[in-house]
């Protein structure tokens, strides 16, 4: 069908893609194109020379670098949390979190962590990595779900679980439909029923939060959650995952998550780069994000002007709603023939029969590239391909 052929690209990920011939790329989640900045690349290269690439072992055994310490402190402070711990990717962070909170581990006589009674309550549209992390938990016994973004649905489930130790798992910006939940209300319900809350903020980290940007209120609500997870793949544009929260819990994750003791962590240059970029976007040059969001708003208007059926949300995660999986792959191929890469998201990334083409604007896209996408889409609409 055309999606099995993994594309090969010989340049830094971003607005274009390819080897000999470059095409316009709307697939990269490296939203801000920061690796192309000289200062960011210098930071990555300097850290590589200082620390190397290979870690030499897991963080529990071999330890971490000052770059990791700086990153974890910087991100924890930015998110308003006491401490943070990093993992190789956001997926590993999610797996480590659920493992830590769900398992019972006996370290030696008299020293154990007993979490066999903890139950998890997920938003139905939670990311694949979160569902994967909970695969070993029996649905209906230790794992429950509620309708997407429904505060009432969450409350109904929590009411039935009264008396149990509960962890509620939601996201800040859902990447397929681009929605942001009513975060204050979600956290209010968690607090009312004594549940811990875990927000996967892979998509909105460093993009949303400040008072002058959209979704400030929701992000203030998110800061009230017990734990916040971020991925460095999106706005930061590198690789890694990080969980921020209360210091005693974060410290315990070193041992009980399994993901710090049995696998490699964030590469040191990525840790140095994440600390650098977090300070850059949060404090030194927040206008990078403001300019990007203004560009997203213009792009969104252009798509609406030609009546593209896009998701009804103003986050930077925009999708063209297609529905049928086969049609979605055909459209992907049709755009490719026009020199545009717009990735199809099918089950299990999207719901069955809910396939979308996800369009991620990159800060480096030119007006010509954007207008070309709009012109091609307009033609596809007229030809009833869309
Ligand atoms: C909501 C959400 N959580 C987790 C992840 C996984 O992050 P990573 O790619 O760092 O493993 C993603 C990645 O796209 C995501 O969108």
TrEMBL record:
Pfam families in alphabetical order: Aminotran_1_2 (PF00155)
Protein name: 8-amino-7-oxononanoate synthase
EC number annotated for this UniProt entry: 2.3.1.47
Cofactor(s) needed for function: pyridoxal 5'-phosphate
UniProt keyword annotations, A-Z: Aminotransferase, Transferase
GO MF entries: transaminase activity
SUPFAM superfamilies, per database record: PLP-dependent transferases
InterPro entries noted in UniProt: Aminotransferase_I/II_large (IPR004839), AON_synthase_class-II (IPR050087), PyrdxlP-dep_Trfase (IPR015424), PyrdxlP-dep_Trfase_major (IPR015421), PyrdxlP-dep_Trfase_small (IPR015422)
Cited PANTHER family: CLASS II AMINOTRANSFERASE/8-AMINO-7-OXONONANOATE SYNTHASE
Coiled coil: none
Protein origin, superkingdom: Bacteria
Organism: Actinokineospora guangxiensis
Catalytic activity: 6-carboxyhexanoyl-[ACP] + L-alanine + H(+) = (8S)-8-amino-7-oxononanoate + holo-[ACP] + CO2
Residue span, Aminotransferase class I/classII large domain: 24-375
């Amino acid at each position: 069908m055309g999606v099995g052929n993994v594309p090969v690209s010989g340049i830094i990920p971003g607005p274009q893609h390819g080897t000999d011939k470059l095409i316009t790329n709307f697939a990269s989640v490296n939203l801000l194109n920061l690796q192309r900045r000289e200062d960011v690349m210098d930071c990555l290269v300097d850290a590589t020379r200082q620390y190397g690439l290979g870690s030499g072992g897991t963080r529990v055994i071999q330890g971490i670098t000052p770059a990791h310490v700086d990153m974890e402190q910087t991100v924890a402070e930015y998110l308003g949390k006491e401490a943070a711990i990093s993992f190789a990717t956001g997926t590993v962070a999610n797996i480590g979190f659920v493992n830590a909170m769900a398992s019972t581990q006996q370290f030696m006589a008299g020293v154990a962590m007993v979490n066999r009674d903890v139950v998890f309550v997920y938003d139905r549209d939670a990311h694949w990595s979160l569902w994967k992390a909970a695969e070993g938990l029996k649905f209906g016994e230790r794992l429950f779900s509620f309708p997407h973004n429904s505060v009432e649905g969450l409350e109904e489930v929590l009411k039935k679980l009264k008396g149990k130790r509960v962890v509620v798992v939601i996201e800040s910006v859902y990447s397929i439909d681009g929605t942001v939940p009513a975060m204050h209300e979600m956290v209010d319900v968690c607090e009312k029923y004594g549940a811990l809350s875990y927000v996967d903020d892979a998509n909105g980290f460093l993009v949303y939060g400040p008072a002058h940007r959209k979704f400030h209120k929701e992000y203030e609500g998110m800061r009230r959650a017990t734990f916040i997870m971020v991925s460095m793949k999106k706005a930061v544009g590198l690789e890694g995952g990080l969980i921020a929260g209360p210091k005693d819990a974060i410290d315990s994750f070193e041992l009980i998550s399994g993901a710090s003791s049995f696998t490699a962590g964030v590469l040191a240059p990525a840790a140095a780069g994440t600390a650098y970029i977090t300070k850059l976007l949060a404090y030194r040059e927040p206008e990078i994000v403001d300019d990007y969001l203004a560009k997203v708003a213009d792009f969104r208007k252009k798509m609406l002007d030609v009546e593209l059926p896009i998701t009804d949300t103003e986050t930077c995660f925009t999708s063209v709603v297609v529905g049928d999986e086969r049609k979605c792959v055909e459209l992907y191929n049709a755009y490719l023939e026009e020199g545009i890469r717009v990735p199809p998201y099918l089950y299990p990334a999207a719901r069955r029969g809910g396939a979308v083409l996800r369009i991620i604007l990159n800060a480096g896209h030119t007006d010509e590239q954007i207008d070309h996408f709009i012109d091609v889409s307009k033609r596809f609409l007229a030809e009833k391909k869309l």
